[in-house]
Design goal:
Strand content: 5-15%
Number of helices: 2
Radius of gyration: 13 Å
Order of helices and strands: HEHE
Distance between the termini: 28 Å
Strand order of the largest sheet: 1-2
Number of strands: 2
Shape: globular
Structural class: alpha+beta
Length: about 80
């Protein structure tokens, strides 16, 4: 998108389910769909969504996650893109 241009936001969500904290599987279809749509950026909230989105080759912004290194979302905080 050109600077000053308009963008489009695509939203995908799951209902909150008890015990879903570290299970990324329900998020995979949504992540794959965003890849097919060729979005420019994926924004996630929470560990399961981040784990599913990290498989994509699209830049990711991760919000509301406690232990990104210990859960395997990133290898280290100094260089989160390195895997």
């Amino acid at each position: 998108m050109a600077p000053g241009g308009q963008g489009l936001a695509e939203t995908r969500a799951l209902p909150k389910v008890l015990g879903l904290m570290f299970r990324a599987r329900p998020f995979w279809p949504r992540s794959e769909e965003l890849v097919r749509l060729k979005v420019d950026l994926i924004v996630t909230r929470g560990t399961p969504a981040a784990l599913a989105a990290k498989e994509a080759t699209i830049p990711i912004v991760i919000a509301k996650i406690g232990e990104p290194v210990n859960t395997g979302v990133v290898a280290n905080l100094a260089d989160p893109a390195a895997m």
